[in-house]
Amino acid sequence: PLLPRSRRSARPTYASARSSRAPPALPASFRRSAMLRAPLSSLLLIALIGATAGQYLENQEYDVDENGLPMDSGNVDAVAEEEEQMTQVDKREEEDKAFLMSTSKPLGQISGMALDKKGRLVVFHRADRVWDESTFDESNRMDGKVAPIANSTIAIINATTGQVLEEHGENLFFLPHGLSIDSEGSIWVTDVGSHQIHKLGADYKPVLTLGEKLVPGTDGAHFCQPTDVAVAKNGIFFVADGYCNSRVVKFDRNGNVLAVFEAPDDSLGSSPFLIPHSLALIEDLNLLCVADRENERVQCYSSGLAEGHRSIPAGIPITSAENIGRVYAIREKNHYLVGVTGADGDGTLEPQLFTMDMNTGKANTFLKGIENAHALAISDEGKVYVGQMNPNQIVVVDLA
């Protein structure tokens, strides 16, 4: 089961000479931390406690050195030695709990990931294609002369060894983005280049496609750079749409539109979605959570899946986590919402991997410093796989 455990903050080190069987160490910029940024009420409480403590300290008498600075009357050397010993223990623990996966073949920019029923890691990547300022014109269209990516864009990887077992997706996708796998094992992907979503069959070829190829739009038959798909057990699915549309669209299993909703814009200070980038569906709680990337928040809405007296229309705001940095990906397992963020707009928050207990609202940060993380997958055993771009690599973090 996925049960996060808090640890002292530590900065893992590179091991320059490691056994050939050992996974690569994390870069020194990655480190763990025990707490996510607190809610506003908690911050106010901490500030109040801090002010009181400060006033108390101002009233104390200290021995001072020749510069008038307070002198520590404790055994400084003993304390420092104990802290160093604890840090070394935490560093060793870090190397066991978080590492870089060595894949047997290089991957392109990793945009989406999921684990299939066999426990294999399914990775959606961009091969040799990159997204830059020239990829789309002012109307959000790709150059009509651009062809689908010729190389494979889907890699099936042994989640333990990193061995690439299969490759698929040649000549199908223009600019891969999100990937999810439904309860029946079908793979769903979004292509921000073609403005389409696809459900893939056993041969990794589309069996259902929505959106007009290479044509962006805002109506029920079009998307504009859609980012992610979340699928319910009954076949109803949700599409985050996307980079140039600020909405979530709900479909029945046949692809008919059931509902469209946006983040509310009201007097309470809410604002519309600013790149709904990732989705997590928690069916038994009737919740659809949206990673609202540039608004630096996760917002959870009623999914509209519950029936009877619990029935609530889709898109009713339920709860949110604000000011947590740019949220690139979220996934849920056993009522734990796991997310990965980039730095916030003003640079005060580092990139981080966080978990949130959906039953209690308690949040923990487990790893800081994962630059350019874009995708997540979670195993039943509590391992989190984080896909990065530039460098294109996979970080494995054990939260169990």
Features:
6-blade_b-propeller_TolB-like; 400 residues; globular; 4-stranded antiparallel sheet; disordered N terminus; 10% helix; 2 helices; 24 strands; mainly beta; peptidylamidoglycolate lyase activity
How many beta-strand segments?
24
Task: List the secondary-structure elements in sequence, H or E.
Answer: HHEEEEEEEEEEEEEEEEEEEEEEEE
Any idea what the shape is? globular
Helical fraction: 10-25%
Category by helix and strand content: mainly beta
Reported for the largest beta sheet, the result is: 4 strands, antiparallel
Mean pLDDT: 82
Question: What quaternary form is this?
Answer: single chain
The helix count comes to 2
Give the strand order, joined by hyphens, for the main sheet.
1-24-23-22
Give the percentage of residues in beta strands.
25-35%
Rg estimate, integer Å: 23 Å
Q: Residue ranges: pLDDT <50 for 5 or more in a row?
A: 1-21, 34-65, 67-76
Distance between the first and last residues' Cα: 7 Å
Subcellular location: Secreted
NHL repeats: 162-203, 210-254, 266-304
Keywords: Calcium, Disulfide bond, Glycoprotein, Lyase, Metal-binding, Repeat, Secreted, Signal, Zinc
Binding site for Zn(2+): 177, 277, 374
